[in-house]
Amino acid sequence: MNEPSPISERYRRGMETRRAVLGDSHVDRAQSVSTDFDRPFQELITESAWGTVWSRPGLTKRERSIVTIALLAALGQDEEVAMHVRATANTGASRNDICEALLHVAIYAGVPAANHAIKIAKQVFEQMDADQTTRGEA
Asked: Residue 2: what pLDDT?
C-alpha cells in the first residue's frame, strides 16, 4: 500500500525519545501491530511529535509530560491520558505534578474533563503500584 520512508535522522531521534518516554515494550507493541495502512501515521508521529517536539531542548521530559497530560485531559483523550500517566515513570513527572496539572484543566477546560482524567490517573497509578508490588519494588 505505502512504501516505507527512508529512515531520517529526525525519525531516529524521535524513536529514541519515544522509547525513553513510553518504554521499549510499548513502542515494540505499537510497531508489531503496525500495518501498511498505519505505517505512514506511525512515521509521522515518530518524526513530528517525538523527533521534533519532544526532542526540543526548551522543556524537560518532565515538563513536556505535564503539559501533554493536561492537554490530553482537556481534549478528553482517555487512552492517551492513561498512556502518558504511565509514562511518568520514565519522565520524572510526579503524582503531585499531575494533580496540579489536572487542577489547571478543571479551571481552564472544565471540571468534567479534569474529573474524568483524575479517575483515569488514579486507576493507572493503582495498576502501577500493583505492578511494583508484584515485582517486589514497593
From this structure: 56
CA 128: distance to chain centroid? 15
Closest CA to 18 of 68, 58, 70: 68
Percent helix, strand, coil in the chain, to 5, is 75, 0, 25
Place of cell 515518530: 46
Predicted confidence at residue 136, as pLDDT, reads 80
Distance of CA 99 to the CA centre of its chain: 16
Alpha helices (runs of H) in 24-110, residue ranges in sequence order? 24-32, 39-45, 61-75, 78-91, 95-108
Quote the percentage of the chain above a pLDDT of 90. 90
**N- to C-terminal Cα separation, the chain:** 47
Grid coordinates of 102: 489536572
Instruction: Looking at the structure, tell me whether residues 74 and 31 fall in a common domain.
Output: no
CATH number for the domain including 69?
1.20.1290.10
Instruction: Name the residue range of residue 128's domain.
Output: 59-138
